[in-house]
Structure formats: C-alpha cells, structure tokens
Inverse folding.
C-alpha cells in the first residue's frame, strides 16, 4: 500500500489536483487499485452543483488517468520515474453510469492493455460501493521532464 506521500514521489500533481489518496494494490507496469476519498470540501463542489454536489465526470476520468500513470511510472526504477511525466494521450469509450457525491469512496482500477514504446493504453474503472460509476480506455505518453 502506498500513502499519499509515496504517490507524490511519482506524480507531479498537488492539492487540489492530486486525485489519488492511496494505492491499495499495484503490480508495476500491469495493474493498480487506488482510492480517492470524495469530500465536501473539494473546491469544485462550490459550483458543481450548489445544493446538489456531484463530482464532475471529467475529474473522475482525471483520477483514473492519474492512477493509470502510476502503472506506467512504477514500471521504471524510482529515479527514472522521477525524471519522467505521464501525459494524458487519449480517451476512448468513456461511460458515466452513476453520479459520485461527497462522502463516497472512489475505488480506481486500471489495467494495462498495450504498451508500445512510451505509449501506454489502459482500461480504467471507477467504483463506488462495488458498482461501476465510470469506465474508459485511457492512453498515456511518457516523456522526460524538461
């Protein structure tokens, strides 16, 4: 299990844009299961939507993308991973099945489908209480930091 400080060694994101709180399981280069605690104090809830707070679907996709980046970056040794960024390269077949609200625990699962050079393709699923709320195929591109 990785805590948030471990995650921040691989991802450049910081509050309020770091959307992975904990890694529950990881198989470097293959699979990740991570957690995002959705709380009412998230800044986007002030405007999305007043009186009916719902986590924006695009941020659920971003959380899946961050979890997916951990799959790719964890396949490298830690020093090499620190020299790289995982850029969002594409999205296919995104589906939003249920809303995510404050108080939910978002479980993020990602699995590598294909890797070709610096390009990684992954399937991602977000769950709340064991039910799929979002699914998508995501692509990441690894590049050295400038």
């Amino acid at each position: 299990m990785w805590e948030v400080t471990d995650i921040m060694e691989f991802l450049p994101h910081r509050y309020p844009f770091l959307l992975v709180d904990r890694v529950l399981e990881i198989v470097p280069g293959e699979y990740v299961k991570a957690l995002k605690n959705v709380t009412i104090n998230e800044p986007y809830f002030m405007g999305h939507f007043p009186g009916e707070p719902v986590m924006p679907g695009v941020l659920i996709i971003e959380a899946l993308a961050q979890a997916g980046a951990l799959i790719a970056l964890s396949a490298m040794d830690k020093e090499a991973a620190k020299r790289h960024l995982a850029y969002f390269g594409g999205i296919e077949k995104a589906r939003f099945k249920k809303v995510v609200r404050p108080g939910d625990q978002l479980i993020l699962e990602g699995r590598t489908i294909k890797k070709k050079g610096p390009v990684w393709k992954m399937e991602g699923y977000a769950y709340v209480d064991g039910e799929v709320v979002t699914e998508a195929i995501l692509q990441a591109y690894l590049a050295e930091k400038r």
User: Anything to note?
Assistant: The two ends are 30 Å apart (CA to CA). Helices lie at 4-10, 57-74, 78-82.
